[in-house]
């Protein structure tokens, strides 16, 4: 067997030879490693494991190793030589983690017991790939918290267990070097940077107390030594996403159920924490779920896709301030290429599969190809190509994959044979700097042309009536009176009128406060008059609160709207009572 070799990929990429990293596929035909020469116009099978029950596959962070479980054993391949550098009998393993420098591999399998062994078997192990020995073997039942996390240099390794995070140093896994005890801790994320190591931990709230994420600088893990703390309610799941420099952390908080009943997706909020001690919530202009979050590899900006469909996409800086608004569209994914100069906004799953390719620096749309029935999407590490795939079990028909150039051109397409399935595709990773920053060229590729709908003979030759369900909002650098449709212009005027109304309400409220302050206590000497004045002021205060809600965009009920119309009469009655007193 001959593999292409990672070192050869790096050398040829530097020499600007059109070669891509390997593409791995997993399905009912087994696991394959595919080499694409001449920008993937030539395809060669470099490796094929024909097992029909393969469970998982992973490339290491630098792409030098490839590990998989084929239902019988775990194998680790060297991408330079193609040799099996480590193998182990692992029939039930369903998850693996390779350490950053390829020294260790951790494996997990579902916990089970037998009548002969009611205590169960060790289902979690850490192996040293280089010395071919087991470093640690234990029982860990929870799949959500099993995965160990390493620092970039492998000096420390952390794992969550029983209300504490245990940290091991320098590959000594028999005894924890340090422990961080926190009641309810259920997540740990180490920043992808060298010493000093920044560690974020998630503490799940209980019995009405809020959940929180705390930031520590290792080894300062004692009480009161957290750099910053961020608390929040309604947290069933928390994703902690470090930027590449390790100086900022995004916290995506999800609740499975939206208590207001307005969203099928539950509720989500996004928080930002930085290593200098700042933390805040990211504010969005549109209500609805948060579909996707991604850091720009330059670590200074991040993109978020959010809001009820059509979803809005916005760039934010490290102060959580909006940098650029991409408008709205049918999208639920945002993903930068490895160099951070191209951003893909796409809508997959139950959406039509439109991919918007954006020049990040110029804020210009490069192309808008369409990949229908896509269930998986990933940028290639060369920054120019990407793969879209239709995989089982999400879709069990029309399984296959396509390799695209960012301009929208399909380079290679593959459909699996009849009665077979594709389960997964992944690109080989490569070290940063392997490929040069791609030069961006404009594209003429657009979404596929839709077939004209059938029209009965009696309707042919007549004008087509277009029904617009919703009007997409244009990116902020394309919004002007000339290119706006009637509906978009109408919505713009509504927003402007709303903002103007808010200012007028604030001014009127200030005036009312000056002329008839609701907090002032005035007695007339007549108990009946005082009672009437008190009731009038109470009603006016309620009207002020309703106006504030209305200015925030909330929909008022009919009885609340009727109450607003009585303000003028109430003010006149209050004035008459005060004058007569």
Record the SSE blueprint:
Elements lengths: L5 H9 L8 E5 L2 E8 L4 E8 L6 E4 L5 E5 L3 E6 L5 E6 L5 E4 L5 E5 L15 E5 L4 E6 L10 E2 L5 E6 L2 E6 L8 E4 L3 E6 L7 E6 L7 E7 L10 E5 L4 E6 L5 E8 L11 E8 L4 E3 L8 E6 L5 E6 L4 E7 L4 E8 L3 E4 L5 E5 L8 E5 L4 E4 L8 E4 L5 E6 L9 E6 L4 E6 L6 E6 L58 H30 L11 H25 L6 H7 L2 H14 L1
Antiparallel strand pairs: 1-2, 1-36, 2-3, 4-5, 5-6, 6-7, 8-9, 9-10, 10-11, 12-13, 13-14, 14-15, 16-17, 17-18, 18-19, 20-21, 21-22, 22-23, 24-25, 25-26, 26-27, 28-29, 29-30, 30-31, 32-33, 33-34, 34-35
Helix pairs in contact: 2-3, 3-5
Structure commentary:
The structure is a single chain. Helix 2 packs antiparallel against helix 3. It contains five helices and 36 strands. Strand 13 and strand 14 (164-169) form a beta hairpin. By secondary structure, the protein is α+β, with helices and mostly antiparallel strands. Helix content is 15%, strand content 35%. The protein starts with 5 loop residues before the first helix and ends with a helix. The longest helix has 30 residues, at 486-515. The protein is globular. A four-stranded antiparallel sheet has the order 3-2-1-36, with no helix packed on it.
How would you sum up this structure in a few lines?
The protein is an alpha+beta fold.
N-end to C-end Cα span: 102 Å
Q: What value does the Rg take, in angstroms? A: 30 Å
Q: How many helices does DSSP assign? A: 5
> What is the beta-strand fraction?
25-35%
């Amino acid at each position: 067997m001959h593999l292409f070799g990672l070192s050869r990929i790096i050398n040829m990429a530097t020499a600007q030879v059109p070669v891509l990293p390997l593409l791995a596929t997993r399905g009912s035909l087994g696991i394959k490693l595919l080499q694409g020469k001449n920008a993937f116009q030539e395809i060669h099978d470099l490796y094929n494991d024909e097992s029909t029950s393969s469970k998982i596959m992973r490339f290491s962070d630098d792409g030098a190793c490839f590990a998989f479980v084929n239902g019988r054993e775990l194998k680790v391949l060297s991408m330079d030589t193609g040799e099996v550098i480590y193998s182990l009998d692992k029939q039930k393993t369903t998850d693996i983690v390779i350490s950053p420098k390829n020294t260790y591999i951790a494996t997990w399998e579902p916990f089970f017991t037998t009548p002969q062994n009611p205590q169960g078997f060790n289902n979690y192990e850490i192996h040293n790939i280089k010395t071919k020995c087991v470093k640690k073997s234990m029982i860990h039942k929870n799949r959500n918290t099993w995965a160990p996390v390493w620092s970039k240099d492998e000096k420390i390794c952390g794992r969550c267990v029983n209300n504490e995070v245990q940290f091991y140093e320098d590959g000594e896994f028999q005894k924890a070097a340090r422990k961080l005890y926190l009641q309810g801790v259920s997540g740990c994320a180490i920043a992808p940077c060298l010493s000093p190591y920044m560690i974020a931990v998630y503490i799940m709230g209980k019995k009405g107390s809020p959940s929180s994420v705390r930031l520590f600088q290792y080894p300062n893990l004692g009480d009161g030594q957290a750099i910053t703390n961020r608390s929040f309610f309604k947290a069933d799941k928390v994703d902690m996403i470090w930027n590449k420099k390790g100086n900022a952390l995004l916290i995506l908080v999800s609740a499975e159920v939206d208590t207001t009943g307005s969203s099928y997706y539950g509720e989500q909020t996004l928080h930002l924490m930085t290593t200098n001690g700042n933390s805040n919530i990211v504010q969005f202009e549109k209500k609805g779920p948060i579909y996707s979050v991604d850091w720009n590899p330059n670590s200074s900006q991040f993109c978020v896709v959010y809001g009820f469909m059509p979803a809005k996409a916005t760039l934010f800086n490290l102060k959580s301030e909006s940098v650029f608004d991409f408008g709205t569209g049918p999208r639920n994914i945002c993903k930068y290429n490895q160099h951070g100069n191209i951003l893909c906004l796409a809508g997959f799953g139950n959406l039509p599969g439109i991919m918007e390719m954006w020049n990040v620096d110029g804020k210009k749309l490069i192309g808008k190809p369409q990949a229908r029935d896509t269930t998986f999407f990933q940028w290639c590490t060369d920054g120019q190509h990407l793969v879209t795939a239709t995989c089982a079990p999400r879709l069990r028909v029309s399984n296959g994959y396509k390799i695209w150039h960012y301009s929208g051109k399909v380079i290679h397409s593959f459909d699996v044979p009849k009665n077979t399935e594709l389960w997964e595709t992944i690109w080989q990773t490569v070290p940063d700097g392997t490929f040069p920053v791609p030069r961006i060229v404009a594209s003429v590729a657009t979404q596929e042309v839709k077939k004209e709908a059938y029209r009965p003979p009696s309707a042919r030759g007549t004008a087509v009536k277009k029904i617009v369900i919703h009007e997409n909002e244009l990116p902020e650098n394309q919004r002007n009176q000339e290119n706006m449709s009637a509906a978009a212009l109408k919505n713009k005027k509504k927003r402007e009128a709303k903002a103007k109304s808010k200012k007028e309400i604030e001014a009127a409220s200030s005036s009312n406060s000056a002329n008839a302050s609701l907090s002032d206590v005035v007695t007339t000497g007549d108990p009946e008059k005082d009672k009437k004045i008190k009731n009038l002021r109470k009603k006016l205060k309620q009207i002020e609160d309703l106006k504030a809600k209305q200015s925030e965009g909330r929909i008022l009920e009919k009885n609340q709207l009727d109450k607003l119309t009585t303000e003028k009469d109430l003010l006149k009655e209050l004035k008459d009572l005060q004058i007569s007193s």
